[in-house]
Amino acid sequence: MNISGAHHSNLEHGRVGPRVTVLSDILKPEANNFGLIRLGLAMAVLVSHAFYFKTGTPKAEPLTAWTGHSLGEHGVQVFFFLSGLLVAQSLAHSRGLADFALARALRIFPGLLVCVLLTAFVLGPLFTTLDISAYLSDPGVFSYIARTLSLSTGLAPLPGVFETLPAAGTVNMSVWTLKYEVLCYILLAMAGLAGLLNPRWRTVAATVLAIFIALVFIEPPKSAEGYTASDNVRYFSLFFASGVLAYLLRNVLVLDWRIWALLGGAFYGALGTNFGELGTALFLGYGALMLAALPARMSRRFANRYDLSYGVYIYASPVQQAVVELLPDWTVGGQILAATPIVMALAFLSWVIIERPALTLRRRYAPALDRLAVRIESIRRPRGAH
User: Fold this and answer.
1) What is the mean pLDDT of the chain?
2) Beta partners for 22?
C-alpha cells in the first residue's frame, strides 16, 4: 500500500498554466539531471577538501571568505536539499516504513562497509608508520571501523596513518554528515506516519513545514567549526526540509529562471545576517531544480545508469590524504588532478560491485515486508474491526 494514502486530490494531476514547467514534470529519472548534479556536488566536496588537506585550515578555501561557507559545505547543503526531495518521493512510493527503512539502509551501509574495510586493511597498512603486525593488533584499527560504521564520527583516526600531514590524522572526514542524513530520514518517516504525505493534508503539511523552515535556523552567522550538535541538526534539517517542501509543492512549484534570479538577490542580501542559511537554502535548492530540468541526454543517461556520487563522497578523503602523503610538493590543483581518476575508479567499482547489487535486495525482500506490514496492521487493528 502506498504510504501517502489511497486518495488523490485534483491538484495531483493539475498544472498551473500552458507551457509552464513545474517540478512534477521532471521527477522521473529520465526527465532530470539529479544524478548528474549529485556527482557534481560530490566532486565539489573533493575540490573543496583539497585546500584543507593541503594547508590544514578550512579557511584556505577561497569561497569561505565570501559566503561564510566553503564550496564543499555548499555542496553538502544541496545534497541535503535533493535528499529531502528524492527521499520524500521514495517514502511516498514505498510499501511501508519497513520497505522505506530497508531502501535507505541498503543505499548507505553496504558501500560504506566496504570503503571502511578497504581503508582500514589496505590503505592503513600501506601508509602507517607502524610495522604491519603492530598496526593490525592496535585497537585503534577496530575503533576506526566501529566509530565510522556507527556514523558517530568522520574523524576516527587509524594508528600511524597520515599523522604528520597538515590535516593530521584525518582519514575519512566526509562521512561525518551521514548521521545527520539518517536522522533526517527518521524524522521524515515519523512525519510520514503523522500524515505529511497524505494528499488530503497537503496544504496543512506544506504550511507547517514552511513555517518550520522559516524559523528553524534564524540566528547570527558563525563559523561552521563553532556549531554544536544541536546547531548541526537544525542546520541540516533546514536544507532537507526545504527539499521535502519542494516535493509537497511539486505540482505548483514553477521552474523559472526569473524566480531563481530573485532568490539570488535574496541570497546575496541575506549573507551575513540571521537569515543567511534560509536564503542559501532557497537559492541553491531552487537552482538545483533549474539545473535538473536542463537537457543533458548522454550525461544524464550515464549518471542514471552509474550513480557514482556516493562512492566519490566516501572514497575522496582517504585517497586525497594518500595523494598529499605521496606528492606533498604538488599544488592543490595538481593534487586534485591526481586524486580524481583514482576516486572515480573506486566509485565506479563500488557502484557496480557493491551498491547496485545491494539495492536489488530490496525487491527480493519486498514480499516478506508486505507480509510484515499486514501482520503489524492486524495487530494494531482492534479485534473484530473491519
Assistant:
1) 90
2) 254
pLDDT per residue as tens digits for the range 220-275:
887 777 888 899 999 999 999 999 999 999 999 999 999 999 999 999 999 989 99
Cβ neighbours of residue 118 closer than 8 Å, sequence gap 6 or more? none
φ and ψ of 98, to 5 deg: -65, -45
Q: Please, what is the end-to-end C-alpha distance for the chain in angstroms?
A: 17
Answer yes or no: are the C-beta atoms of 140 and 157 closer than 8 Å.
Answer: yes
Q: Can you tell me whether residue 254 is helix, strand or coil?
A: strand
**C-alpha distances out from residue 297 to 26, 39, 81, 306, 356, Å:** 13, 16, 23, 14, 22
pLDDT, tens digit, 9 for 90 and up, residues 307-348: 999 999 999 999 999 999 999 999 999 999 999 999 999 999
Q: In angstroms, how far is CA 19 from the centroid of its own chain?
A: 32
Residue 177 grid cell = 554528515
Q: Select from 202, 307, 184, 192 the least CA-distant residue to 246.
A: 202
* Residues in the chain, total: 386
Please state the separation of Cα 57 from the chain's center in Å.
Answer: 24
What's the CA gap between 246 and 252, in Å, rounded? 9
Say if residues 324 and 335 touch (Cβ distance below 8 Å).
Answer: yes
Render pLDDT for 68-114 as a digit per residue (tens, 0 to 9).
Answer: 899 999 999 999 999 999 999 999 998 888 889 999 999 999 999 99
Give the Cα separation of 285 and 277 in Å (integer).
Answer: 12
DSSP annotation of 305: H
How many angstroms separate the CA atoms of 287 and 318, rounded?
A: 30
The residues, any chain, with a CB within 8 Å of residue 284's CB and separated by 6 or more, are: 74, 77, 78, 81, 267
Rounded Cα–Cα distance for residues 155 and 136 (Å):
19
